[in-house]
Amino acid sequence: MLDQIATLGRSTLDRLASAGRSGQMLWQSLVAAPTPVVMFPLLLKQIYFIGVLSLVIIIVSGLFIGMVLGLQGYTILVDYGSEQAVGQMVALTLVRELAPVVTALLFAGRAGSALTAEIGLMKATEQLSSLEMIGVDPLRRIVAPRLWAGFISMPILAVIFAMVGIFGGALISIEWLGIFEGSFWANMQNSVDFSGDVLNGVIKAFVFGVVVTWIAVFQGYDCVPTSEGISQATTRTVVYSSLAVLGLDFVLTALMFGDI
Amino acid sequence: MSMHNSSESIIDIQGLSFSRGTRKIFRNVNMEIPRGKITAIMGPSGTGKTTLLKLIGGQLRPDTGQIKIDGEDVHRLSRQQLFSLRERMGMLFQSGALFTDMSVYDNVAFPIKVHTDLPDDMIRDIVLLKLQAVGLRGARDLMPSELSGGMARRVALARAISLDPAIVMYDEPFTGQDPIAKGVLVKLIRMINKALGHTSIIVSHDIQETLSIADHIFLLSDGHVIASGTPAQLLKDDTEQVKQFMQGLPDGPVPFHFSDDDLLQDLYTQESPNA
Questions:
Q1: Which of A125, A129, A134 lies closest to B111 in CB terms?
Q2: Range of the domain at B123
Q3: Lower CB density within 10 Å: C or N end of chain B?
Q4: How many domains does chain B have?
Q5: Which residues are in the ABC transporter domain (chain B) (predicted)?
Protein backbone atom coordinates (compact mmCIF):
# COMPACT_ATOMS: atom_id res chain seq x y z
CA MET A 1 0.00 0.00 0.00
CA LEU A 2 2.75 2.41 1.03
CA ASP A 3 4.68 1.45 -2.10
CA GLN A 4 1.69 2.31 -4.25
CA ILE A 5 1.33 5.71 -2.62
CA ALA A 6 5.05 6.31 -3.09
CA THR A 7 4.81 5.30 -6.78
CA LEU A 8 1.80 7.57 -7.27
CA GLY A 9 3.64 10.44 -5.58
CA ARG A 10 6.77 9.88 -7.64
CA SER A 11 4.90 9.74 -10.94
CA THR A 12 2.92 12.88 -10.02
CA LEU A 13 6.15 14.70 -9.19
CA ASP A 14 7.73 13.48 -12.45
CA ARG A 15 4.76 14.75 -14.44
CA LEU A 16 4.79 18.10 -12.66
CA ALA A 17 8.52 18.46 -13.29
CA SER A 18 8.00 17.56 -16.93
CA ALA A 19 5.17 20.11 -17.25
CA GLY A 20 7.48 22.71 -15.71
CA ARG A 21 10.29 21.88 -18.13
CA SER A 22 7.91 22.07 -21.09
CA GLY A 23 6.70 25.50 -19.99
CA GLN A 24 10.27 26.66 -19.55
CA MET A 25 11.20 25.37 -23.00
CA LEU A 26 8.23 27.12 -24.62
CA TRP A 27 8.97 30.40 -22.88
CA GLN A 28 12.70 30.35 -23.59
CA SER A 29 12.28 29.46 -27.24
CA LEU A 30 9.64 32.08 -27.87
CA VAL A 31 11.58 34.78 -26.05
CA ALA A 32 14.89 33.78 -27.63
CA ALA A 33 13.65 33.44 -31.20
CA PRO A 34 16.50 34.34 -33.56
CA THR A 35 16.69 37.64 -35.42
CA PRO A 36 14.32 37.87 -38.42
CA VAL A 37 17.21 37.57 -40.92
CA VAL A 38 18.28 34.23 -39.43
CA MET A 39 14.78 33.10 -38.55
CA PHE A 40 13.08 33.64 -41.91
CA PRO A 41 14.86 30.96 -44.00
CA LEU A 42 14.67 28.48 -41.10
CA LEU A 43 10.97 29.22 -40.66
CA LEU A 44 10.23 28.83 -44.38
CA LYS A 45 11.98 25.47 -44.43
CA GLN A 46 9.96 24.26 -41.45
CA ILE A 47 6.68 25.55 -42.88
CA TYR A 48 7.50 23.53 -45.96
CA PHE A 49 8.18 20.36 -43.95
CA ILE A 50 5.36 20.78 -41.46
CA GLY A 51 2.71 22.52 -43.56
CA VAL A 52 3.24 21.98 -47.27
CA LEU A 53 4.11 18.31 -46.95
CA SER A 54 0.94 17.76 -44.88
CA LEU A 55 -1.22 19.12 -47.70
CA VAL A 56 -1.83 15.77 -49.41
CA ILE A 57 -3.23 14.04 -46.33
CA ILE A 58 -5.27 17.13 -45.40
CA ILE A 59 -6.77 17.60 -48.87
CA VAL A 60 -7.59 13.92 -49.40
CA SER A 61 -9.12 13.55 -45.92
CA GLY A 62 -11.04 16.83 -46.27
CA LEU A 63 -12.48 15.76 -49.60
CA PHE A 64 -13.69 12.39 -48.33
CA ILE A 65 -15.06 13.75 -45.07
CA GLY A 66 -16.97 16.45 -46.99
CA MET A 67 -18.35 13.82 -49.36
CA VAL A 68 -19.44 11.58 -46.48
CA LEU A 69 -21.05 14.55 -44.72
CA GLY A 70 -22.99 15.41 -47.88
CA LEU A 71 -24.20 11.86 -48.26
CA GLN A 72 -25.11 11.32 -44.60
CA GLY A 73 -26.70 14.75 -44.31
CA TYR A 74 -28.84 14.13 -47.34
CA THR A 75 -30.11 10.73 -46.15
CA ILE A 76 -31.20 12.24 -42.81
CA LEU A 77 -32.56 15.55 -44.07
CA VAL A 78 -34.51 14.01 -46.96
CA ASP A 79 -36.81 12.31 -44.40
CA TYR A 80 -37.91 15.76 -43.23
CA GLY A 81 -38.06 17.17 -46.72
CA SER A 82 -35.33 19.65 -45.93
CA GLU A 83 -32.51 18.23 -48.07
CA GLN A 84 -31.90 21.75 -49.41
CA ALA A 85 -30.25 22.51 -46.04
CA VAL A 86 -27.47 20.00 -46.62
CA GLY A 87 -25.06 22.78 -47.68
CA GLN A 88 -25.64 24.56 -44.39
CA MET A 89 -25.09 21.35 -42.43
CA VAL A 90 -21.88 20.43 -44.25
CA ALA A 91 -20.42 23.92 -43.89
CA LEU A 92 -21.26 24.40 -40.21
CA THR A 93 -20.05 20.93 -39.22
CA LEU A 94 -16.78 21.45 -41.03
CA VAL A 95 -16.07 25.04 -40.10
CA ARG A 96 -17.02 24.75 -36.43
CA GLU A 97 -15.81 21.27 -35.57
CA LEU A 98 -14.43 18.81 -38.04
CA ALA A 99 -11.91 21.01 -39.83
CA PRO A 100 -10.00 22.11 -36.71
CA VAL A 101 -10.32 18.80 -34.86
CA VAL A 102 -9.62 16.33 -37.68
CA THR A 103 -6.84 18.54 -39.08
CA ALA A 104 -5.24 18.68 -35.61
CA LEU A 105 -5.45 14.88 -35.23
CA LEU A 106 -3.95 14.34 -38.68
CA PHE A 107 -1.37 17.04 -38.00
CA ALA A 108 -0.34 15.28 -34.78
CA GLY A 109 0.11 12.01 -36.63
CA ARG A 110 1.80 13.41 -39.72
CA ALA A 111 3.85 16.41 -38.54
CA GLY A 112 3.91 16.03 -34.74
CA SER A 113 5.41 12.56 -34.76
CA ALA A 114 7.97 13.64 -37.37
CA LEU A 115 8.98 16.64 -35.23
CA THR A 116 9.44 14.47 -32.14
CA ALA A 117 11.45 11.84 -33.99
CA GLU A 118 13.63 14.43 -35.70
CA ILE A 119 14.50 16.38 -32.56
CA GLY A 120 14.88 13.16 -30.54
CA LEU A 121 17.30 11.76 -33.09
CA MET A 122 19.22 15.03 -33.11
CA LYS A 123 19.55 14.64 -29.36
CA ALA A 124 20.61 10.99 -29.62
CA THR A 125 23.27 11.76 -32.24
CA GLU A 126 24.60 14.65 -30.11
CA GLN A 127 23.67 17.25 -32.73
CA LEU A 128 21.90 19.34 -30.08
CA SER A 129 24.92 19.12 -27.76
CA SER A 130 27.20 19.99 -30.61
CA LEU A 131 25.11 23.09 -31.41
CA GLU A 132 25.39 24.12 -27.76
CA MET A 133 29.14 23.67 -27.84
CA ILE A 134 29.41 25.69 -31.05
CA GLY A 135 27.77 28.46 -29.06
CA VAL A 136 24.35 28.28 -30.70
CA ASP A 137 21.28 27.88 -28.52
CA PRO A 138 19.30 24.88 -29.86
CA LEU A 139 16.13 26.47 -28.48
CA ARG A 140 16.65 29.36 -30.87
CA ARG A 141 17.97 27.45 -33.83
CA ILE A 142 16.00 24.19 -33.72
CA VAL A 143 12.99 24.60 -31.44
CA ALA A 144 11.77 28.16 -32.15
CA PRO A 145 11.39 27.86 -35.96
CA ARG A 146 9.56 24.55 -35.58
CA LEU A 147 7.17 25.96 -32.98
CA TRP A 148 6.33 29.01 -35.10
CA ALA A 149 5.98 26.89 -38.24
CA GLY A 150 3.44 24.72 -36.43
CA PHE A 151 1.55 27.75 -35.06
CA ILE A 152 1.33 29.23 -38.56
CA SER A 153 0.66 26.06 -40.57
CA MET A 154 -2.11 24.51 -38.50
CA PRO A 155 -4.81 27.22 -38.97
CA ILE A 156 -4.03 27.43 -42.70
CA LEU A 157 -4.31 23.66 -43.03
CA ALA A 158 -7.64 23.70 -41.18
CA VAL A 159 -9.00 26.39 -43.52
CA ILE A 160 -7.89 24.34 -46.53
CA PHE A 161 -9.49 21.25 -44.97
CA ALA A 162 -12.81 23.09 -44.55
CA MET A 163 -12.73 24.47 -48.11
CA VAL A 164 -11.96 21.11 -49.69
CA GLY A 165 -14.57 19.46 -47.45
CA ILE A 166 -17.25 21.92 -48.57
CA PHE A 167 -16.22 21.27 -52.16
CA GLY A 168 -16.56 17.49 -51.53
CA GLY A 169 -19.99 18.02 -49.97
CA ALA A 170 -21.10 20.13 -52.94
CA LEU A 171 -19.79 17.55 -55.37
CA ILE A 172 -21.92 14.82 -53.82
CA SER A 173 -25.02 16.90 -53.10
CA ILE A 174 -25.24 18.81 -56.37
CA GLU A 175 -23.64 16.54 -58.93
CA TRP A 176 -24.72 13.19 -57.57
CA LEU A 177 -27.81 13.66 -55.41
CA GLY A 178 -29.21 16.44 -57.59
CA ILE A 179 -29.84 19.15 -55.00
CA PHE A 180 -30.48 22.54 -56.58
CA GLU A 181 -27.16 24.39 -56.71
CA GLY A 182 -28.65 27.76 -55.83
CA SER A 183 -30.29 26.63 -52.61
CA PHE A 184 -27.20 24.61 -51.58
CA TRP A 185 -24.95 27.68 -51.67
CA ALA A 186 -27.59 30.21 -50.58
CA ASN A 187 -28.51 28.25 -47.46
CA MET A 188 -24.84 27.95 -46.61
CA GLN A 189 -24.21 31.65 -47.13
CA ASN A 190 -27.19 32.65 -44.99
CA SER A 191 -26.37 30.43 -42.05
CA VAL A 192 -22.57 30.60 -41.76
CA ASP A 193 -21.51 33.65 -39.81
CA PHE A 194 -17.98 34.92 -40.35
CA SER A 195 -17.04 35.90 -36.81
CA GLY A 196 -19.29 33.38 -35.06
CA ASP A 197 -18.34 30.32 -37.09
CA VAL A 198 -15.35 30.86 -39.36
CA LEU A 199 -13.30 32.92 -36.94
CA ASN A 200 -14.07 30.63 -34.00
CA GLY A 201 -13.01 27.66 -36.12
CA VAL A 202 -9.74 29.37 -36.98
CA ILE A 203 -9.16 30.24 -33.31
CA LYS A 204 -9.71 26.59 -32.40
CA ALA A 205 -7.28 25.51 -35.11
CA PHE A 206 -4.66 27.97 -33.84
CA VAL A 207 -5.03 26.74 -30.24
CA PHE A 208 -4.74 23.11 -31.40
CA GLY A 209 -1.71 24.04 -33.50
CA VAL A 210 0.01 25.57 -30.47
CA VAL A 211 -0.78 22.58 -28.26
CA VAL A 212 0.16 19.86 -30.76
CA THR A 213 3.42 21.54 -31.83
CA TRP A 214 4.37 22.31 -28.25
CA ILE A 215 3.79 18.69 -27.18
CA ALA A 216 5.64 17.32 -30.23
CA VAL A 217 8.69 19.54 -29.89
CA PHE A 218 8.92 19.09 -26.13
CA GLN A 219 8.65 15.30 -26.33
CA GLY A 220 11.55 15.26 -28.80
CA TYR A 221 13.64 17.72 -26.81
CA ASP A 222 13.06 15.96 -23.50
CA CYS A 223 13.21 12.34 -24.68
CA VAL A 224 15.63 9.71 -23.43
CA PRO A 225 18.19 9.72 -26.26
CA THR A 226 17.98 6.04 -27.17
CA SER A 227 16.00 4.22 -29.86
CA GLU A 228 13.52 3.04 -27.24
CA GLY A 229 13.24 6.54 -25.76
CA ILE A 230 12.53 8.10 -29.15
CA SER A 231 9.91 5.48 -29.95
CA GLN A 232 8.14 6.14 -26.63
CA ALA A 233 8.35 9.88 -27.12
CA THR A 234 6.82 9.64 -30.60
CA THR A 235 3.96 7.53 -29.27
CA ARG A 236 3.44 9.99 -26.41
CA THR A 237 3.26 12.88 -28.89
CA VAL A 238 0.41 11.29 -30.82
CA VAL A 239 -1.48 10.11 -27.71
CA TYR A 240 -1.10 13.32 -25.65
CA SER A 241 -1.82 15.57 -28.65
CA SER A 242 -4.96 13.67 -29.62
CA LEU A 243 -6.30 13.68 -26.07
CA ALA A 244 -5.42 17.34 -25.57
CA VAL A 245 -7.12 18.31 -28.85
CA LEU A 246 -10.33 16.42 -28.03
CA GLY A 247 -10.44 17.71 -24.46
CA LEU A 248 -9.69 21.29 -25.47
CA ASP A 249 -12.27 21.09 -28.25
CA PHE A 250 -14.96 20.51 -25.68
CA VAL A 251 -13.77 23.41 -23.54
CA LEU A 252 -13.51 25.77 -26.50
CA THR A 253 -16.88 24.72 -27.91
CA ALA A 254 -18.50 25.29 -24.53
CA LEU A 255 -16.91 28.75 -24.35
CA MET A 256 -17.74 29.73 -27.93
CA PHE A 257 -21.14 28.16 -28.49
CA GLY A 258 -22.27 27.25 -24.95
CA ASP A 259 -24.61 30.23 -24.53
CA ILE A 260 -26.62 29.60 -27.72
CA MET B 1 39.26 34.84 -30.47
CA SER B 2 42.26 33.77 -28.40
CA MET B 3 42.32 34.30 -24.69
CA HIS B 4 45.14 36.47 -23.45
CA ASN B 5 46.21 35.46 -20.05
CA SER B 6 49.67 34.56 -19.03
CA SER B 7 48.82 32.23 -16.14
CA GLU B 8 50.02 28.66 -16.39
CA SER B 9 46.67 26.92 -16.29
CA ILE B 10 43.77 27.74 -18.58
CA ILE B 11 41.19 25.57 -16.81
CA ASP B 12 41.09 25.34 -13.06
CA ILE B 13 38.81 22.74 -11.47
CA GLN B 14 38.40 22.95 -7.69
CA GLY B 15 36.48 20.62 -5.36
CA LEU B 16 34.28 19.27 -8.14
CA SER B 17 31.56 16.82 -7.13
CA PHE B 18 28.88 15.52 -9.43
CA SER B 19 26.36 12.73 -9.21
CA ARG B 20 23.76 11.19 -11.48
CA GLY B 21 20.83 10.03 -9.37
CA THR B 22 22.34 8.25 -6.41
CA ARG B 23 25.56 7.39 -8.23
CA LYS B 24 28.48 9.67 -7.40
CA ILE B 25 30.55 10.30 -10.52
CA PHE B 26 33.08 12.77 -9.06
CA ARG B 27 34.09 13.33 -5.47
CA ASN B 28 36.11 16.44 -4.77
CA VAL B 29 38.14 16.45 -7.97
CA ASN B 30 40.88 19.05 -8.39
CA MET B 31 42.64 19.60 -11.70
CA GLU B 32 44.64 22.30 -13.38
CA ILE B 33 44.84 22.03 -17.13
CA PRO B 34 47.97 23.71 -18.51
CA ARG B 35 47.70 26.31 -21.26
CA GLY B 36 48.84 25.48 -24.78
CA LYS B 37 49.53 21.83 -24.02
CA ILE B 38 47.86 18.53 -24.87
CA THR B 39 46.29 17.19 -21.69
CA ALA B 40 44.80 13.73 -21.58
CA ILE B 41 42.12 12.62 -19.17
CA MET B 42 42.21 8.85 -18.96
CA GLY B 43 40.49 6.19 -16.98
CA PRO B 44 38.38 3.07 -17.30
CA SER B 45 34.97 3.27 -19.02
CA GLY B 46 32.25 4.74 -16.85
CA THR B 47 34.53 6.97 -14.78
CA GLY B 48 32.84 10.07 -16.11
CA LYS B 49 35.44 11.32 -18.56
CA THR B 50 32.86 12.54 -21.07
CA THR B 51 30.81 13.94 -18.18
CA LEU B 52 33.85 15.98 -17.19
CA LEU B 53 34.01 17.53 -20.68
CA LYS B 54 30.31 18.37 -20.45
CA LEU B 55 30.90 20.00 -17.06
CA ILE B 56 33.76 22.05 -18.50
CA GLY B 57 31.56 23.09 -21.43
CA GLY B 58 28.77 24.11 -19.04
CA GLN B 59 26.31 21.55 -20.40
CA LEU B 60 26.02 20.00 -16.95
CA ARG B 61 26.11 21.66 -13.52
CA PRO B 62 28.25 20.30 -10.71
CA ASP B 63 26.75 19.53 -7.29
CA THR B 64 29.57 21.42 -5.62
CA GLY B 65 32.87 22.93 -6.63
CA GLN B 66 33.79 25.20 -9.49
CA ILE B 67 35.33 25.17 -12.92
CA LYS B 68 37.11 28.33 -14.01
CA ILE B 69 38.18 28.97 -17.57
CA ASP B 70 40.63 31.84 -17.68
CA GLY B 71 39.28 33.00 -14.35
CA GLU B 72 35.59 32.87 -15.40
CA ASP B 73 33.45 30.51 -13.35
CA VAL B 74 31.61 28.54 -16.07
CA HIS B 75 28.56 27.82 -13.94
CA ARG B 76 28.04 31.38 -12.76
CA LEU B 77 27.71 32.76 -16.28
CA SER B 78 24.35 33.75 -17.74
CA ARG B 79 23.02 31.68 -20.63
CA GLN B 80 24.18 34.38 -23.05
CA GLN B 81 27.67 34.62 -21.52
CA LEU B 82 27.98 30.84 -21.56
CA PHE B 83 27.20 30.71 -25.26
CA SER B 84 29.77 33.39 -25.99
CA LEU B 85 32.37 31.51 -23.90
CA ARG B 86 31.67 28.43 -25.99
CA GLU B 87 32.60 30.34 -29.15
CA ARG B 88 36.16 30.11 -27.81
CA MET B 89 35.90 26.35 -27.34
CA GLY B 90 35.75 23.56 -29.88
CA MET B 91 34.55 20.08 -29.14
CA LEU B 92 34.98 16.91 -31.12
CA PHE B 93 32.16 14.54 -30.17
CA GLN B 94 32.61 10.79 -30.05
CA SER B 95 30.04 10.29 -32.81
CA GLY B 96 31.23 13.31 -34.80
CA ALA B 97 27.75 14.85 -34.33
CA LEU B 98 27.75 16.38 -37.80
CA PHE B 99 24.52 18.08 -38.85
CA THR B 100 22.96 15.47 -41.09
CA ASP B 101 20.97 17.96 -43.17
CA MET B 102 24.09 19.88 -44.24
CA SER B 103 26.96 19.00 -46.57
CA VAL B 104 30.54 18.67 -45.31
CA TYR B 105 31.26 22.22 -46.50
CA ASP B 106 28.22 23.68 -44.72
CA ASN B 107 29.02 21.79 -41.53
CA VAL B 108 32.47 23.36 -41.36
CA ALA B 109 31.17 26.77 -42.44
CA PHE B 110 28.33 26.73 -39.89
CA PRO B 111 30.19 28.11 -36.83
CA ILE B 112 31.85 30.81 -38.97
CA LYS B 113 28.55 31.90 -40.51
CA VAL B 114 26.84 32.01 -37.14
CA HIS B 115 29.51 33.89 -35.23
CA THR B 116 31.13 36.21 -37.78
CA ASP B 117 30.07 38.66 -40.47
CA LEU B 118 32.73 37.55 -42.93
CA PRO B 119 31.88 37.67 -46.64
CA ASP B 120 31.11 34.37 -48.35
CA ASP B 121 34.34 34.16 -50.33
CA MET B 122 36.41 34.57 -47.19
CA ILE B 123 34.36 31.90 -45.41
CA ARG B 124 34.98 29.66 -48.41
CA ASP B 125 38.73 30.15 -48.09
CA ILE B 126 38.70 29.36 -44.37
CA VAL B 127 36.54 26.25 -44.85
CA LEU B 128 38.76 24.95 -47.66
CA LEU B 129 41.89 25.51 -45.56
CA LYS B 130 40.39 23.67 -42.59
CA LEU B 131 39.26 20.80 -44.82
CA GLN B 132 42.72 20.76 -46.42
CA ALA B 133 44.24 20.46 -42.93
CA VAL B 134 42.23 17.30 -42.27
CA GLY B 135 42.80 16.00 -45.82
CA LEU B 136 39.16 16.16 -46.91
CA ARG B 137 39.02 19.17 -49.24
CA GLY B 138 37.82 16.81 -51.98
CA ALA B 139 34.90 15.62 -49.84
CA ARG B 140 33.34 19.06 -49.34
CA ASP B 141 30.19 18.30 -51.35
CA LEU B 142 29.43 14.97 -49.66
CA MET B 143 26.68 14.59 -47.09
CA PRO B 144 27.54 13.17 -43.63
CA SER B 145 25.71 9.92 -44.47
CA GLU B 146 28.19 9.35 -47.32
CA LEU B 147 31.26 9.51 -45.06
CA SER B 148 33.05 6.69 -43.29
CA GLY B 149 33.36 6.89 -39.50
CA GLY B 150 36.94 8.11 -39.70
CA MET B 151 36.14 10.75 -42.32
CA ALA B 152 33.15 11.98 -40.29
CA ARG B 153 35.41 12.48 -37.29
CA ARG B 154 37.92 14.41 -39.38
CA VAL B 155 35.16 16.68 -40.72
CA ALA B 156 33.98 17.17 -37.15
CA LEU B 157 37.56 18.10 -36.24
CA ALA B 158 37.66 20.66 -39.07
CA ARG B 159 34.39 22.10 -37.76
CA ALA B 160 35.67 22.15 -34.16
CA ILE B 161 38.70 24.25 -35.19
CA SER B 162 36.92 26.45 -37.74
CA LEU B 163 36.88 29.48 -35.42
CA ASP B 164 40.45 28.85 -34.17
CA PRO B 165 39.27 28.23 -30.60
CA ALA B 166 41.52 28.61 -27.58
CA ILE B 167 40.52 25.20 -26.22
CA VAL B 168 39.68 22.07 -28.19
CA MET B 169 38.15 19.10 -26.38
CA TYR B 170 38.30 15.65 -27.94
CA ASP B 171 35.83 13.07 -26.66
CA GLU B 172 37.22 9.57 -27.28
CA PRO B 173 38.72 10.54 -30.65
CA PHE B 174 40.24 7.10 -31.32
CA THR B 175 37.35 4.84 -30.30
CA GLY B 176 36.09 2.57 -33.05
CA GLN B 177 38.70 3.71 -35.58
CA ASP B 178 40.90 1.42 -37.66
CA PRO B 179 44.69 1.66 -37.12
CA ILE B 180 45.18 3.94 -40.13
CA ALA B 181 42.44 6.35 -39.05
CA LYS B 182 43.88 6.35 -35.51
CA GLY B 183 47.29 7.22 -36.90
CA VAL B 184 45.78 10.03 -38.98
CA LEU B 185 43.94 11.45 -35.96
CA VAL B 186 47.05 11.33 -33.75
CA LYS B 187 48.98 13.19 -36.43
CA LEU B 188 46.19 15.74 -36.90
CA ILE B 189 45.71 16.46 -33.21
CA ARG B 190 49.44 16.97 -32.72
CA MET B 191 49.81 19.07 -35.86
CA ILE B 192 46.78 21.27 -35.15
CA ASN B 193 47.80 21.82 -31.54
CA LYS B 194 51.24 22.94 -32.66
CA ALA B 195 50.00 25.10 -35.54
CA LEU B 196 47.23 26.89 -33.65
CA GLY B 197 48.90 26.94 -30.25
CA HIS B 198 45.65 26.18 -28.43
CA THR B 199 45.00 23.95 -25.45
CA SER B 200 43.87 20.42 -26.24
CA ILE B 201 42.04 18.16 -23.84
CA ILE B 202 41.72 14.54 -24.88
CA VAL B 203 39.44 12.13 -23.12
CA SER B 204 40.43 8.61 -24.01
CA HIS B 205 41.20 5.11 -22.89
CA ASP B 206 43.40 4.27 -25.85
CA ILE B 207 46.69 4.16 -23.98
CA GLN B 208 49.14 3.85 -26.84
CA GLU B 209 47.78 6.69 -28.97
CA THR B 210 47.18 8.99 -26.03
CA LEU B 211 50.61 8.46 -24.50
CA SER B 212 52.20 9.28 -27.83
CA ILE B 213 50.74 12.79 -27.98
CA ALA B 214 49.87 13.91 -24.44
CA ASP B 215 52.08 16.36 -22.56
CA HIS B 216 50.24 15.74 -19.32
CA ILE B 217 47.87 13.02 -18.16
CA PHE B 218 45.24 12.84 -15.43
CA LEU B 219 44.15 9.33 -14.53
CA LEU B 220 40.61 9.13 -13.16
CA SER B 221 39.08 6.23 -11.32
CA ASP B 222 36.21 5.87 -8.92
CA GLY B 223 35.45 9.58 -8.88
CA HIS B 224 38.99 10.71 -8.05
CA VAL B 225 42.17 11.70 -9.81
CA ILE B 226 44.35 8.72 -8.88
CA ALA B 227 47.48 9.89 -10.66
CA SER B 228 48.74 12.73 -12.80
CA GLY B 229 51.95 13.54 -14.58
CA THR B 230 53.79 13.15 -17.84
CA PRO B 231 53.36 9.89 -19.80
CA ALA B 232 56.82 8.76 -18.63
CA GLN B 233 55.94 9.40 -14.97
CA LEU B 234 52.70 7.45 -15.24
CA LEU B 235 54.37 4.50 -16.92
CA LYS B 236 56.83 4.31 -14.02
CA ASP B 237 54.11 4.64 -11.36
CA ASP B 238 53.84 1.39 -9.39
CA THR B 239 50.51 2.02 -7.62
CA GLU B 240 48.25 -1.01 -8.22
CA GLN B 241 45.41 1.00 -9.79
CA VAL B 242 47.70 2.91 -12.15
CA LYS B 243 49.56 -0.25 -13.15
CA GLN B 244 46.31 -2.10 -13.86
CA PHE B 245 45.09 0.59 -16.23
CA MET B 246 48.38 1.40 -17.94
CA GLN B 247 49.15 -2.26 -18.55
CA GLY B 248 45.58 -3.29 -19.32
CA LEU B 249 45.31 -6.05 -16.67
CA PRO B 250 41.83 -7.67 -16.55
CA ASP B 251 41.58 -7.87 -12.75
CA GLY B 252 42.96 -5.72 -9.97
CA PRO B 253 41.69 -2.81 -7.91
CA VAL B 254 39.07 -2.29 -10.65
CA PRO B 255 37.33 -5.65 -10.27
CA PHE B 256 36.49 -7.89 -13.20
CA HIS B 257 33.11 -8.70 -11.62
CA PHE B 258 30.56 -5.95 -11.32
CA SER B 259 29.10 -7.18 -8.04
CA ASP B 260 30.81 -9.05 -5.24
CA ASP B 261 27.89 -11.31 -4.23
CA ASP B 262 28.93 -14.88 -3.68
CA LEU B 263 28.24 -16.93 -6.82
CA LEU B 264 26.96 -20.02 -4.96
CA GLN B 265 24.66 -17.97 -2.80
CA ASP B 266 23.37 -16.20 -5.90
CA LEU B 267 22.74 -19.48 -7.73
CA TYR B 268 20.78 -20.96 -4.81
CA THR B 269 18.57 -17.93 -4.36
CA GLN B 270 15.03 -18.78 -5.43
CA GLU B 271 14.18 -15.24 -6.43
CA SER B 272 12.84 -14.93 -9.97
CA PRO B 273 14.68 -12.45 -12.24
CA ASN B 274 11.74 -10.12 -12.52
CA ALA B 275 10.83 -10.11 -8.86
A1: A134
A2: 9-232
A3: C
A4: 1
A5: 11-247
